[in-house]
Design a protein that fits this description.
There is one protein chain. This protein is mainly alpha-helical. The chain has a domain of about 70 residues. Helix content is about 55%, strand content about 10%. The protein has a 3-stranded antiparallel sheet with strand order 2-1-3. A hairpin with a 7-residue loop joins strand 1 and strand 2. The chain is rod-shaped and about 85 Å long. The N and C termini lie far apart (about 80 Å).
């Protein structure tokens, strides 16, 4: 009985050693890096503001996202059909100085 336990312990010790050596010889794999945003996307936002009576406003650095949101809003809230050209004509470009967190905090204080 004791010899069986010793055999199991020795076998476990050797297998652990073999696994440790195997993992030490393999090169470490780096996680895939996400592509960085283009400098222009980091610095500028586009925004579209609806009629003041509606109060809808959207801001994004991604043109496709902005367009999709505006088209959906126009259809659901105003029963209007808009094209990508219509949205592009309405969009205003804003610079990096836009601090969205600051704006949100100011709106919460109101």
């Amino acid at each position: 009985m004791i010899s069986a336990i010793v055999v199991i312990v020795v076998a476990f010790a050797f297998s652990s050693l073999a696994l440790a050596q195997e993992s030490a010889t393999k090169p470490a794999q780096k996680p895939e890096a996400k592509p960085a945003m283009k400098p222009a996307e980091q610095m500028t936002y586009k925004s579209v503001t609806c009629d003041p009576t509606c109060g809808f406003m959207v801001r994004s650095h991604n043109d496709k996202e902005l367009t999709s949101i505006v088209i959906t809003h126009a259809k659901n809230a105003h029963d209007k059909t808009m094209t990508e050209k219509d949205v592009a004509a309405m969009a205003k470009t804003e610079g990096k100085e836009v601090d969205m967190k600051k704006e949100v905090m100011q709106e919460e204080k109101k």
